[in-house]
Every structure is written in structure tokens, then in C-alpha cells.
Design brief:
about 80 residues, alpha+beta, Aspartate Aminotransferase, domain 1, disordered C terminus, EC 2.6.1.83
Amino acid sequence: MFLWGKVPQCYKDAGELCDSLLYNAEVFVTPGFVFGSNGGRYVRISLCAPEELLMETSNRIGAMQSVATIDSIKGGLIYAE
């Protein structure tokens, strides 16, 4: 089972969001453009994992988003570092 998510406007494309998730939250998601040209603003997330792992992953992404929001308010880049 998979979930498709739209890339927020603060990211250039799905590749940039995927890189940010991988390097900052240690979460791998697939950029939608590997499935066709209409996927450039989407990511595909696999839900084929134990519920505990999905919850942990969700928490790591949420923590990254909190830092990114603070950085964007300060005028920085939308990256959690």
C-alpha cells in the first residue's frame, strides 16, 4: 500500500523534498517523477512496514517540520539542520 503526498510549495520539487527527508529525518520516500512526468510535485510513501515503524517515521518527519517552520520564519532555508 502506498500514499501519495503533494510537495509543499517551499520545495523546488519532489527531489528536493526527498533529499531533505533522507538527510534530516533519515526517512526515504520516492520522488513521484520516477513514475512519470506528472509526478514532479508528489512523493510516494510506502505503508508496508510495521505500525510502530510508521509511527516513529511520522514523529521524525514531524520534528523536522517543526525546525523547518522556525527556520522559514527567521528567513532561512526550509531545511532542518
